[in-house]
Amino acid sequence: MKPYLSALRRNINSGTRLCLFRRCEPEDFSVSLDQLVLLIALNFLLAFFLDLLISLPHPEFSFYAVAANGLDVLLFLFAAYLIGKLLMDKGAALRLGVYLYSMNPFLLLLWVLLARLGALVPQESVTVYGVTYLVYLTWVIIAIVWAITLLAGGFSRKVPAAFLVMMFAWMLPVYYFSDDTTLWYPSAEGGVDEYAAYRELDVERMFYRQPELLSERLESLLAERSDRDDLYFVGFAGYALQDVFRNEIQFARALFDKRFDTQGRSLVLINNLATRKTLPLATSVNLERALQHLGNVIDRDNDVVVLFLTSHGSKADLSVNFWPLRLNDMTPAMLKQYLDDAAIKWRIIMVSACYSGGFIETLKDENTAIMTAAAIDRMSFGCDDERELTYFGEALLQNQLQSQVSIAAAFENTAKEIELREQAEQLDPSHPQIYIGKAMQEKLQRLETYLVRHADRVVDPDPVLLEP
User: Which end of the chain is least crowded, N or C, by CB within 10 Å?
Assistant: First the structure.
């Protein structure tokens, strides 16, 4: 056993020198199949205990990460085989495996160190993590190229070719197909199972309850008034696992009820444990039916429907999630179809989600006003469990619409406010998007004039507060 451990120590020392870009010779390594197996096992154990240490005091083991780590090893060995077969000699695969797995302990410790240093920076920003990851990734790439250069006996055309093989046969497939190789992650404080309540949901009863819940809310909506242009409000909170989205929709509804005279003409669809028995769920079917009902209630030529959607988002759609239910995410095309089918002409749409700018191109027309929390290729911020409102919701609802009735001005001021906040916090800019059709511009001016003239009857000067 002692010769194996001595050779293992020798390999790790040589691998560390490679990671530090110091000169090494092939003879500095002890290359054998036994050593490769020992190095793979050592790296797995090191990752196991480091992840465990970081996840204390309440670690949870990820069984999925075992398969992800296995795929990582398998694809690396496949890439090494291709390099030996296509670019070098038949022994190159084994040598490359020993070289890189000898480097792994240092690279793993380096990542832990950089992550810990990044966590110490007192700012609410993804920039720190991005810079940390970029530094680490650059270091790893240079170290791998250095190892391949040693394998090739010097820098030549084989080195970049071998690196490309490794990137396409190993690195990119692992990135796309392995969700996460982290073996331990921190659970809730005290080891509380945060998903217990979701697992105990009576899904069947929830689904069968939806038509009744939705009908109760729709039937309670007041009819439109012939002497004025009415506003109707529909809120949609799509993501159940975080209360910030429920809070945002409840705040938005209360705001429009008090300041824009939608009291009795407002409806919310919410995915959340706390409201699942009293409010209809935020599903695509419920939204479609709600809009169909509104289309039959409103004066289509004059009344306006305000639609506020909040959730996580992607470049393709808005997340609609209430695990363990399987719900359809909301795409811009779906939302446009629902509004068109309901013959809702006048539309004010606000989307609070990452990448939500993709809704504008599909939904814009002369009778529509749209504001999104971010551009189609940008993240928005503030969807944290500790927050009551997202950055977008706080700026638009709490800071702008609560102090004025001009929706157009509120949109413009919200974009400026968010820009200044992101600059102050050194966040990547979200670039909120705004579109107001020409006909809607005139419509908003008339609505604003009415609200100002009837401020004593419509606009409540008291601030809207979040419900406890």
Answer: C
Closest to 30 (Cα-Cα) out of 70, 3, 59: 3
In DSSP terms, 372 is beta-bridged to 351, 433
For Cα atoms 270, 400, 451, give the angle at the middle one, nearest 5 degrees: 90
Structure tokens at 455: 């401020």
The list of the chain residues with pLDDT below 70 reads 118-130, 179, 188-194, 455-468
Q: Which residues contact 280 (CB under 8 A, 6 or more apart)?
A: 210, 213, 214, 217, 269, 270, 286, 290
Q: In which element (H, E) is residue 237 found?
A: strand 231-237
CA separation for the pair 225, 299 (Å, rounded)? 8
Contacts (Cβ under 8 Å, ≥6 apart) of 152: 88, 158, 159, 162
CA distance 212 to 283: 14
Q: What per-residue confidence (pLDDT) applies to 468?
A: 39
CA angle 180, 106, 91 (to 5 degrees): 90
Domain boundaries, given as residue ranges, for the chain: 2-186, 210-453
Distance, in Å, from the CA atom of 18 to the CA atom of 5, rounded to the nearest integer, reads: 20
Where do runs of H (alpha helix) occur along 298-406?
332-341, 358-363, 391-393
Helix (H) or strand (E) holding 389: none
Please answer whether residues 98 and 39 qualify as being in contact, where contact means their C-beta atoms are separated by less than 8 angstroms: yes
Q: What angle do CA 352, 451, 359 make, to 5 degrees?
A: 25
The owner of tokens 């039916």 is: 289
The answer to whether the CB of 367 falls within 8 A of the CB of 443 is: yes
At residue 124, the pLDDT reads: 46
Q: Characterize the bridge pairing of strands 346-352 and 304-310.
A: parallel
Closest CA relative to residue 358, chosen from 382, 333, 341:
333
CATH code of the domain made up of 210-453? 3.40.50.1460
Q: Which residues contact 120 (CB under 8 A, 6 or more apart)?
A: none
Cα gap 356→373, rounded to integer Å: 6
Task: Please give the Cα distance from 270 to 322 (Å, whole number).
Answer: 10
- Residue listed under structure tokens 């068109």: 340
Give CA–CA dist 79/161, Å, rounded.
12
Residue-level pLDDT at 2: 83
Torsion of CA 442, 443, 444, 450, to 10 degrees: 110
- Here the tokens at position 419 are 């820009």
Q: How far is CA 240 from CA 234, 334, 348, in A?
A: 18, 21, 24
The contacts of residue 165 (CB under 8 Å, 6+ apart) are 79, 82, 83, 86, 87
Provide CB contacts within 8 A for 327, sequence distance 6+.
Answer: 271, 281, 283, 284, 320, 321
301: exposed, middle or buried (Cβ count in 10 Å: 0-12, 13-18, 19+): exposed
Q: What is the pLDDT of residue 404?
A: 86
And the tokens for 359?
A: 């809704």
